[in-house]
Amino acid sequence: MPELLDDTLQALDGFCRDVSGDFRELGRLLDRDPDVIGEYLDRPGVRLSRFVAIPPRYWTGPEAPANLVGVLRTVLGQSVAWERLAYGDPNVWLASPGPALSGGVIDVLATPAQADRYYQRLVAEPLHTFFGLTEPAKGSAATELETTLTPADDGDGWILDGEKCYIGNGARAQFGVVFCRRAPGLLGIEAVLLDCATPGFSGELLSTVGLRGARISRMRFDRVRIPAENLLGAHLPATRRGLYGVTQVLYRARPTIAAMALGCAQAVCDYVRSQRRTLAGYDRLHLEDVVDRIAAVRLLIHRSAADVDRGVVNSHRLGAAKARAARLSEEATLLAARLLGPAALVEHPWLEKIYRDVRAFEIMEGTTNLHRMSVFRGVLKNTFLTASEPPGNGHATGH
Amino acid sequence: MTSALIDQLHATGYPVTLDALHRRVWSGEFVPAPAGYVAASVTALPTAEPTPFARFGLAVAPWPGRAVPTDVAARFASGLLDLHRAVLRRALDQAVRHLGERNSEGTSLLAKQLVQAQLADVAMGLREDEVMPPERRSGDRAARWRTHQRLVRLGRAVLYLFGASGFLVDGPAGELYLAEVTGNIYLHPGTEESDA
């Protein structure tokens, strides 16, 4: 693990390694049947995945070693943890019950009463949640979303209409957060809590190439009534509500998704080394090249994560770290399929699965093309590459 | 590659088109890969052990026995590359349609320079493949493997244009995945030659 990690972060890495020892086995089962996670809720890694995004004040017992509880709430700590868990298998964390990304919205936008209601429900039962942002026609462009929130005719709450697509756990969750439009413009975006038992809601599981544990889904809202108390951020100024909530959650999540991709890339390289111990010539050169780049991208991720923890966000660099990690994970699997010989995708079932799984990282947290455009804007603003920056030192800030 | 192959692919999908390739090159028999497997549709190989490929309509079964004549193996391998090209060409057409139907910030995604550049990259790669001298394109196992690797990279590039729908089994992602898998089974020249 990386050279910049202090003792606590290294201990966190070791803890995650210990609890994810069975993730390869669970990942294989989830690839066959994503719903099988319900049979393994007592496994330590699944339990950690369930509770880690729930604030410790709601825990009913120790869910992580006391010295790691604080660091698990940081983006850097989560990046270290998610890389190690994904090294085991990327499906398990995504398939596990718990708040996932929607918890981030609660942390930013909910009143204390709303947060209590949300987290106490998750502690009481192993429930799944969703983060409903992406739409079929608009992707994850939060400023362009078309799902509408209109006042109910009878004055009792709100009515939600529209469609979301490519939402993790959307068709299996019991509740979650939906971003929607109450009025035109950037300040007209809101976030609401939706209970999936509400009439008018329907969810459909999509058949994806890989990462089936994520249970990527399409969701439809046909005049779904949202109680007034489920509007998030109503107590906040308009500039601190819907869109602000989206960006805060995505900034915090981006390094962790990048770290998952990187964990898979590292796992693939280690797998190749275990299967072909005497790589030589160009084979060795190509593998070492990928390993070099994994080390570099890990530093990009950790620096971005530490920046987010300090409240300093360079979105261009954040996006670049995720984009590079996603593509690197694909390259690692393509290389492995070549290095492990004819029919490697038949004779190495784990490789065949991860070969499909890592393709998801391209579309999670914004596609590489979106991040390329962001990098381009950063170059123009001189906040992506900074010529005056001393080697190994901090970097410029900007948005 | 002919438009007839694209039409067949459109009508029946990758696995059944692969079955037709088997029948065409070896008098109705399945052509096994050098590694000792046959890949065909799940319909054509109903007794094959289930694998993760079955979700995509493909069966892969060990196939010990009869040696394949060199010319048959070469024709089958070239046919696989043609099939891969047909999948890619169809995916490119689908990408143009998909992007033309999507709007962002008031304009079609096809009007975005980044998208145009990516489409052009894929088209240039396909054109380069079209004009490649035959011996370098498919003259021997090593050449066919290099061609396969280039087609795989073009496939990934075209899927990036589909956004999240490029991760769904239904559509170009599923068929391009099968082209990658069959190439891995049939075209890989062996680890000693894999850098060729």
Automatic annotation (TrEMBL), chain A:
Q: Which Pfam families match?
A: Acyl-CoA_dh_1, Acyl-CoA_dh_M
Keywords from the named record: FAD, Flavoprotein, Oxidoreductase
Question: Which intervals hold domain Acyl-CoA oxidase/dehydrogenase middle?
Answer: 131-224
Keyword Nuclease in record? no
InterPro entries xref list: Acyl-CoA_dehydrogenase (IPR050741), Acyl-CoA_Oxase/DH_mid-dom (IPR006091), Acyl-CoA_Oxase/DH_mid-dom_sf (IPR046373), AcylCo_DH-like_C (IPR036250), AcylCo_DH/oxidase_C (IPR009075), AcylCoA_DH/oxidase_NM_dom_sf (IPR009100)
Check the record and name the SUPFAM superfamilies matching this protein: Acyl-CoA dehydrogenase C-terminal domain-like, Acyl-CoA dehydrogenase NM domain-like
Annotated Gene3D superfamilies: Butyryl-CoA Dehydrogenase, subunit A, domain 2, Butyryl-CoA Dehydrogenase, subunit A, domain 3
The cofactors required by this protein are: FAD
Query: Could you confirm whether the keyword Flavoprotein appears in this record?
Result: yes
Residue ranges occupied by any Acyl-CoA dehydrogenase/oxidase C-terminal domain in the UniProt entry: 241-379
Q: Would you identify the family this protein belongs to, as annotated?
A: Belongs to the acyl-CoA dehydrogenase family.
Output the PANTHER family linked to this UniProt entry.
MEDIUM-CHAIN SPECIFIC ACYL-COA DEHYDROGENASE, MITOCHONDRIAL, MEDIUM-CHAIN SPECIFIC ACYL-COA DEHYDROGENASE, MITOCHONDRIAL-RELATED
Question: What protein name is recorded for this chain?
Answer: Acyl-CoA/acyl-ACP dehydrogenase
User: Top-down, what is the taxonomic lineage of the species of origin?
Assistant: Bacteria, Bacillati, Actinomycetota, Actinomycetes, Micromonosporales
TrEMBL record, chain B:
InterPro entries linked: AcylCo_DH-like_C, AcylCo_DH/oxidase_C
Q: Gene3D superfamilies, per this entry?
A: Butyryl-CoA Dehydrogenase, subunit A, domain 3
Tell me the keywords, alphabetical order: Flavoprotein
Q: Where is the Acyl-CoA dehydrogenase/oxidase C-terminal domain?
A: 87-128
| A Pfam entry, by short name | Acyl-CoA_dh_1
Instruction: Return the protein name.
Output: Acyl-CoA dehydrogenase/oxidase C-terminal domain-containing protein
